[in-house]
Amino acid sequence: MKRTSKFPHVDEREVVAAVLRAVDWASDGIRLCRHNVAAFKVHTTGYKSRFVQCGEVGQSDINGIVKTVVCPCCNKAYRTGVRLEIECKTRKGKLTDHQEHWIAAMHDANAIAFVVRPEPCDEDPTGLNHKRLRRRILQQIHTLCRECRQKLETPR
Fold first, then answer.
1. 49 falls within a domain
2. What total number of domains does the chain contain?
3. Whole-prediction pTM value?
């Protein structure tokens, strides 16, 4: 017997669209854009056909820039103009090896990179509620500054 979830299935493109709607430049200081990956052959009259590749295998679904990263503890702005990469997945979707390597490379380059999945609940069965999704994204971006992190890690 096939088990069914009480929450509806959400397609990955719905997750991408919800993330793009959840944050904006004016109120959050975050500029996001969809970044597609494709490869195809172009046939033109009178010319040789050519192969075109857009994007890189494994790159995130959404990329952008964060104007200012603010520490939620002391409200100090400690990073500006930070690259942002967001990989969107369904609840059960798995990252490919290429995607894991891409996110790791972004972390190595001091960028903010993370995966967003829908988190359904009774009040929000799709897990794509605008306010909840925005709050989760901002929590991933606005992390503790070095000084606040050191205070928390220092034993008293």
1. yes
2. 1
3. 0.84
CA 13 to chain centre: 13
pLDDT digits (tens, 9 = 90+) for 127-148: 888 888 898 899 999 888 888 8
CATH number of the domain within which 60 lies: 3.40.1350.10
Q: Is residue 115 part of a domain?
A: yes
Task: Please report, for the chain, how many H helices and E strands are present, in that order.
Answer: 5, 6
Q: Residue 21: beta bridge partners? A: none
Report the distance separating Cα 122 and Cα 109, nearest Å. Answer: 39
Q: Give SS3 for 126.
A: coil
Structural domain for 141, as ranges: 12-153
What's the pLDDT tens digit per position in 14-23?
A: 999 999 999 8
Crossing angle for the helix pair 130-141 and 12-22, nearest 10 degrees?
80
With a CB cutoff of 8 Å and minimum separation 6, the contacts of 21 are 130
